[in-house]
Structure formats: structure tokens, C-alpha cells
Write a structure and sequence with these properties.
The strands form two sheets. The chain has a four-stranded parallel sheet with strand order 2-1-3-4, sandwiched between helices. Strands 6-5-7-8 form a four-stranded parallel sheet, with helices on both faces. The protein has twelve helices and eight strands. It is globular, with a radius of gyration of 22 Å. With 366 residues, it is α/β, with parallel strands linked by helices.
Amino acid sequence: MSSYLPEPAHRHDAPPALGVLLINLGTPEAPTPRAVRTYLKQFLSDPRVVEIPRLLWWPILNGIILNTRPKKSAAKYASIWTDKGSPLRFHTEQQARLLKGYLGERGIQADVAWAMRYGDPDVSRILTEMKHRQVRRILVVPMYPQYAASTTATALDMVFSWFQRSRNQPELRTVRNFHDHPGYLNALEDSVRRHWRAHGLPDAGTRLVMSFHGLPRRSLDLGDPYFCECQKTGRLLAERLKLDPEQYQVCFQSRFGKAQWLQPYTAPTLEALARKGVRRVDVICPGFVADCLETLEEIALEGKQDFLQAGGQEYHYIPALNENPVWIHALADLVETHLAGWPRLPPETADRVETANRARQLGAQN
């Protein structure tokens, strides 16, 4: 029996299409203990995420964590769930839809799809569907501005795994990071300035807190560039906002377990600022291009509680980039740069291909 995936029937009349695949982290299907357990098992079983020998980690994961954490995490997910479902899923889907439109306005006819590293839609399934739509050149964009082995690399692992099982491989390009991309920084600056226009400019009693997702300190020691790229993003954003070093703080959230993680930690930082007399904090999470549990629950809700209970007076969470037009424009710039040199279908041919693909999809559904 062949170990390769089945190939779609070859069609000589189908010109090769151009594809863009956005990949984000993932989300449970529902804010329930059962759904969260399924999601956490896949996430925490990834050796890129937890670099502990399997013989040590497996009993901890299956015997303790998956029996205790799902219920607590489900309650957190329920607090940020919307009538449209998971915020991360919704925003990622909208970003893909808007990106397709922005590229189309530039004359780039691309099949823009999205997938999740953990959960649904599965990376392998989406790549297979793109192949069935005659996509022969694929640009993969992990939606993580700062590169980390536990985010960008594991997303690309899934892509490469699919390629290993693919007999007729498409051409492939990947985006490694965009932590210092001018368009991305423009979008962050725009978000902060719009927030300041709505809530007042910062004064001596205000701090801008830039909270990035944390990683074990060991990752930095082993050569992961994530910490350095977060620091660079923070510095470049502060320069654009004309902030002095004492007016902003880079810190790291989402610590898990007892090991030392990248510091300073966000929650203690918020408490320390309040105790030092800082009246107001504005918190932005530059490492997340779409709002999710870590921004909406941990920062917007828990962070606010930490700051106010420690004596702070005013707390604001600045939403992630989400569907901000400045961000989608920047994403289109990033994608267009990485597509440079690949042949493009004439608009009239691309329109015919898309119409034919839609007709086939409707026929398959019926």
C-alpha cells in the first residue's frame, strides 16, 4: 500500500493557481471541558511545545494535566466566547477573506486559505483542498510576528509533513517572521494612537505595557531568537511612538509550570507598576495578530484585576490587530513581497479557474 496521499485527477486544461495559507495556533471547538481536553492533548503533546522527555512528560500530561486543567480552561474560554464562536477562529477567517480582496485589488489572483496548527481546520486537510483546487504554488504564512520553535517552526513542521506524504508536490515558500516589518509596526502604531485619541494621551502617570507570550527561559539559552525579536519589536514600536524608556515596559505572559520563563512576567509587572504609583496602564500584545484567550481573558480581564487590586486606577487593553485595515494592508505587502517572481495567472484566466472550482464544490456538496 502506498504511503502517499491520493492525488486529485490531473486536468490538462487547468492552469496552475497561486495559493496563500495563513496558519494560526488553534482553538477548541467549544468552551467545554471535553472540547478543551481534546485541544490541550494535541497542543501539549507537541514536542516543540513541551521539550521534556516523553517518559517524564506523558504521565504528567495524561495523569494530571488532562484530568484537571480542561474544566478550568473551559471556564476561561466561556468568558470570551462569542455568538460567532472562538474569537481567534473568527478573526483568522476574516483576515484571510480580507487579504484575498486586498491582493485582488492589486491584480494578484490568489487562493487564500487559513488553518490551525492544533484543532480545526487542520493544516493537512486545507493543503489537500488547495491541491484539489489546482493550487501549484503555495506561500505559507505562520501568523506569528516573532519566530519561535514552539509556534512558527511547529506550524511549518505540519506543512513539511504533508509535503513528505505528497507525491506531486506544489512549489513552496514560507514566511519566517515579520517582527520588524514596517507595515506590521505601522499597524501597531496605528492601534496605539487610535487608543490614545479615544482615551487621552499618556502622561507621567501612564505606562504602555507590551505583553508578549512567554516561553521557558531554556529556549533562549538553546538558541531560540524569540526573546530578542520581541525586544526589537518593543523598541521599534516605542521609537515610533516617541516614548522614553521609562514610559513603556516589555514583559511576558502565560507562564506555565514551575520552571523559569522569559522575564519580566506580566502579572507581577502590572502589580509592581500600580504599587509604584502608576495611575494608568495601556496594555498591547504585539505578538498576537488576532485576539484570543491569552489576550481577551488573561490580559483584558485578569490583567485588569491584578492592576486595580494592587492600587492602579485606570486599565486599558488595546485590541489585537484583527481586521484593522492598516494591518491587512501590511499583510498584503508582506505576502506580495514573498510572492515576487512567481508567475501569475491573467485576471480573466484566474476568474475562470475560481468559477470552475466553485461549481465543482457545489456539485460535490449536492
